[in-house]
Amino acid sequence: MTYCLALRLDEGLVFMADTRTNAGLDDVRAYRKLHVLRPAPDRVFVLQAAGSLATTHEVLDRIARDLAAGDGRESLASVAGLFEAGLYVGRLSREVAASHREALSASGSRGTATFILGGQIAGEPPDLLLIYAEGNYIRASRERPFLQIGESKYGRFVLEVAASAGADVPSAIRVALASMMTTARATLSVGPPYDVGVYLDGALDVSEFRIDAGSAQLAGLGEAWERLMCEAVGGLPDVAPVAAVPGPPDVPAGTR
After folding, report:
1. Residues near 153 by Cβ (< 8 Å), separated by ≥ 6?
2. What span, in angstroms and rounded, lies between the C-alpha atoms of 120 and 190?
3. Tally of CB atoms within 10 A around 110
4. pLDDT one-digit tens code per residue, 21-65
5. Model confidence over 50-59: pLDDT tens digits?
6. How many angstroms separate the Cα of 251 from the Cα of each of 123, 165, 193, 245, 255?
7. Do residues 201 and 181 touch, judged by C-beta distance below 8 A?
8. Which segments within 105-193 are labelled E, that is strand?
């Protein structure tokens, strides 16, 4: 499992992804799930993936093959808009899953993947799309300026409460990290290192950095998060005892 999220802000986009793909007492593996693609000078994309790692890798390989072909086929360098890029990635994902469906079905697996695609093509505003395994997509909105894939339920509340399209980038990174740490604390299927990408409107380039598992920065962030959560609980108003509600009257045995 994995957890990826992205936020659409007034000044750009923020992406965050964990790197855990297999969790267990003696089997924890890490793979990169945040991929920056620069197919042409007038565009940049960030692709995040959850689901079948094998499907994700083949989709990335097919994207690279189409970019290198130079024969006029559709690619991320030729699409006219971000929504067309989303449809293109969705089509590749469906084709990959379909090509392995028979073998995967025999082992009880679907082999599907979902993606978050974000970025900008010159002349368009930056945007975020969540691409389903079926190949269709939805957008982030100003009212709901975030998208999630993978193990999303544990970190959703933080985003719903704190994510805002008007937030600045440092605030958005803090919100994203709080959502990620909440998820990692709740399930072993999500964990560091965490990859972060920041895109500023019009830059046509993405700033990337990684928060490593053993870093002092992550330890300090975790300690601060736990302390602030405890302070928040301690600051809640007292709850007055509630009078007991009488139950239904006893019914003699054998009667209705």
Report:
1. none
2. 28
3. 14
4. 764 445 556 789 999 999 999 999 999 999 988 999 999 999 999
5. 998 899 999 9
6. 74, 58, 60, 18, 7
7. no
8. 113-121, 127-131, 137-139, 146-150
